[in-house]
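Service request form, structural biology core

Requester: graduate student, group of Dr. S.
Request type: structure prediction, single chain
Budget code: on file
Notes: please return the result as structure tokens.

Sequence provided:
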Amino acid sequence: MKAFMAEMNENWNERQRGLKEKEKREENVALYSVENMKKDYRLKKQRLHVELWLKEIEKLEDAKLADSDISVGDDIQRLIDSCSEMERWTLWVAVKISCDVCYSAVQSSG
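Core staff response, request fulfilled:
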């Protein structure tokens, strides 16, 4: 009887191992299926296109910055020239207050 039970247990264990190995093989097959490979390829292709577009956008922005001969001082001068007298006075006050605040902050920290 013991021999029969031992043989049954051994057969049962072998069948369980066989089922587990079969499941693993099926998982590996599903991992490398044609559909999954198509999806992976499509995603990689999309990522590549996004990266290329981002590089192209960066190049365009760099070209815009390099082509512009206007410095920051020229921008400020154009802003002042386009303002009315009242706006100029308001702008001057705002700049003065900002400078005073920065100066006092430097004085208090030093």
